[in-house]
Amino acid sequence: MADLKERLLPPKPASAVNLRDASYRPSASGRQPFQGVDVMGLKKRGQGLRSWIRVDSSGNSQIIEVDKFTMMRRCDLPARDLRLLDPLFVYPSTILGREKAIVVNLEQIRCIITADEVLLLNSLDNYVLQYVVELQRRLTTAAVGEVWQSEGPELNRRRSSRNYDSVFGTPSPDYLPFEFRALEVALEAACTFLDSQAAELEIEAYPLLDELTSKISTLNLERVRRLKSRLVALTRRVQKVRDEIEQLMDDDGDMAEMYLTEKKSRMESPFHEQGSMGFRRLDKCLSIARSRHESMRSSESGTESIEELEMLLEAYFVVIDSTLNKLTSLKEYIDDTEDFINIQLDNVRNQLIQFELILTTATFVVAIFGVVAGIFGMNFAIPLFDNPGAFKWVLMITAVCGITIFCAFVWFFKYRRLMPL
């Protein structure tokens, strides 16, 4: 299988080989030094260097620079998984369990988690730096807890009676494998980031919507439109993270695939070391054929470990689901506000129609006076023109007829319920 991998993967550049040897050579201070690489040699082959932040299981961090193919060999990942971590491309949130690594793409946190290290793309983003600091803090706290655990059962019983939270200000460490601690920090960072954005959107949305209900203007409508666009985009991101966690919880095989420490310990056991190459090839084929869950089930702690990971995912599923419910409530409030505005606009429109109807009726009544004036303005002689009080009687009779016709129209509108009178 090793020969097959060497034939399928492209050849290693000389600079990458030197980098790998140098990155694992310990220094006098215990930290791994960063050695110079042949950058010009890499450029000739079209392979650019990437800066990565490496955090080991002890909490030590360093910055290394490796190329794409070295990272593929180091973590046993295909090229399509590394594209998920490329900041130049926008991919939805994804958590993938592979043979020797977990690929995490959750908002700003894009990293590769192995059994003994975490590799993040080097970035000045505040959330990436917070992830590194929080991961180091938790690993250090877990290391302190492991020291206490190894000091003897009697001393542990005496110290367990104390409040561990009062010493460190955080809950006592759960002794999960390294990859799950790193995954938990990534989930927490993503959920916290999305929840903070949802809270900011709420703070901005409710006063704006209340202002829109009191004063409908083009400016307020435009602000609400932009707010709704942001809400839809954020809801899609939260929904994707929620669906990804739910998909992992529903698939026991994917959860079993993510137990890198246990798989590494099994591969390093004497049974595997004494096994033949044929058995290794068979085990590799079975793992590719999605039978890794069966091998995990055959172990003694497989079921318990899956339950631990499932409980971890359930905790953050509740958090992200709460954020999604918060956004859903905000969307419903926006929809209710839009319905209220539409009702207001319909009411104003109906009032305008009623006013136009009354104005049209009054115009018709006034037109009667124009008809009478036109008739009496014709050039013909009648005895009525010789009567001095005829103009007064014509004016009074025309006014009474116009008022009568107007009242008749108003009664008709009320009878047909065309206006509330």
TrEMBL record:
<dbReference type="Pfam" id="PF22099">
    <property type="entry name" value="MRS2-like"/>
</dbReference>
<comment type="similarity">
    <text>Belongs to the CorA metal ion transporter (MIT) (TC 1.A.35.5) family.</text>
</comment>
<keyword id="KW-0813">Transport</keyword>
<feature type="transmembrane region" description="Helical">
    <location>
        <begin position="393"/>
        <end position="413"/>
    </location>
</feature>
<keyword id="KW-0472">Membrane</keyword>
<keyword id="KW-0175">Coiled coil</keyword>
<keyword id="KW-0812">Transmembrane</keyword>
<dbReference type="InterPro" id="IPR039204">
    <property type="entry name" value="MRS2-like"/>
</dbReference>
<keyword id="KW-0406">Ion transport</keyword>
<keyword id="KW-0460">Magnesium</keyword>
<keyword id="KW-1133">Transmembrane helix</keyword>
<feature type="coiled-coil region">
    <location>
        <begin position="224"/>
        <end position="251"/>
    </location>
</feature>
<dbReference type="GO" id="GO:0015095">
    <property type="term" value="F:magnesium ion transmembrane transporter activity"/>
</dbReference>
<feature type="transmembrane region" description="Helical">
    <location>
        <begin position="357"/>
        <end position="381"/>
    </location>
</feature>
<protein>
    <recommendedName>
        <fullName>Magnesium transporter</fullName>
    </recommendedName>
</protein>
<comment type="function">
    <text>Magnesium transporter that may mediate the influx of magnesium.</text>
</comment>
<dbReference type="InterPro" id="IPR045863">
    <property type="entry name" value="CorA_TM1_TM2"/>
</dbReference>
<dbReference type="GO" id="GO:0016020">
    <property type="term" value="C:membrane"/>
</dbReference>
